[in-house]
Amino acid sequence: MAAVCPERIFRLVQDGDLLGLRALGLNDDVTTTLRMLRRARSGDTLVHVAARKGHLHLMRYLLEELNLDLEVPNREYKRPLHEAASMSHRQCVRSLLERGAQVDSLKSALHGHLDVVDILLQRCGYRPDERDSCGVTPFMDALKHGHVEVARLLMDRHKPDKRAADALGAQALHQAAMTGQDHSIRFLITELGVDVNSRATSMNFTALHYAAKEGHTKTILTLRGLGADLQATDAKGRTARLMASAGGHAACAQALDQTCMQNHTSTSDFTTHGLPPELLHQSSPS
Description:
Helix content: 40-55%
CATH superfamily of the largest domain: Ankyrin repeat-containing domain
Radius of gyration: 24 Å
Distance between the termini: 51 Å
Number of domains: 3
Number of helices: 18
Number of strands: 0
CATH architecture of the largest domain: Alpha Horseshoe
Mean pLDDT: 86
Structural class: mainly alpha
Shape: elongated
């Protein structure tokens, strides 16, 4: 590889310069070296780079003419298919699948690119409640990251258990509350009929407990609007208000205090969410 700089090869692939790559006049010795070429820090192969950038014709050249391996993982254990899917390069995904790329359906749900997930689900022999090492299903993962349309697709196609729990006993609702995904919470409760006050783990946490523990003020308001029991206690007798206070989340604690007071005071000085306006900027992502 003395005559050709590895960094130049990676730059050509990153730029999608197929003509430039061909112009190097790669012989058998150089081609053999290219098959083993990896970026030191990321562990990416040339196929990873082409797939991530969506350079379909160049990726096909690497696979079909240079015979590079499409299943080599990088240092994050991602294969070229994961890179193409995460960037929503639909044609690259199709090409890799046609060449026999193996599909990990659990990772596909995380990406949130609906059209790509649809392709992957058609090819992967998906089991509705397939779990990872932590007991998390694709349905849970999608909602935990706010990908409601992906979760809806999974539900429509495969009918996963909407109340399935992970290894710790937390359901999709609790995971969504933990990450402040209000849209996911509304989907579970209003469309799928999940109980807003359902309990998780041996500690008997509700979604409200999780939202308070993580400091998600807007999620607390969302759960309240969906009928959450503000006085529910966990296995140690703690309310969500106590969890918020213990975690140092003053805005959450105040939101819960204000909510409890609303039956006894005028709401004229409150926003439509039931909070003083100055508290809303401290709220969690929806």
